[in-house]
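1st attempt posting a full record on here, be nice pls
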Amino acid sequence: MLTNKEIRYVLLLVAVWNIVIIAFVCALNRVTIEKKVIGSVAKKPAVSKHDGTEVAKGSSESNTLSEEKPDKVNSSMTDMYASLLIGDYSLENGVEYKFSSDGKFAGYFDDRHTDVKGYYYEVALFGEENVVNIYNKDKTSVVTYYIAFSEEADIVLYYPEANVKFTLES
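the predicted structure (as tokens):
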């Protein structure tokens, strides 16, 4: 039976393979891809919420491979991060994160709120980067982490304002 770490690694390889295939198809069709500067968001970001109210951009479209767009690839990565983030994580320093499948969050929010309950989260696309936003019910307090994979296929949350990384091992 595969461990969670092995499953994440396999999913990461599948996602990378999909990106390679889509890039190859785009190259065959001579589709040009515009690069966007991080921070200059000209349209609504692709969002994957777990409360059923929003889905990632392009997830309900039925495009053929020749019509694939870079935004659809990024949305697929956003969906992948959202599904892999679900779970309970305890870090060595006592910090805990609990991401449920319905979009609820409990655990460490910031230095003043170290054990919150009833908060929410969403994985979104900011520019070309995937982020996870954690917020209270009325969205007056929000913490945003950049999300990526480590070399060991663990999820890494990066908080640039404090230059802090949290590795979520399963």
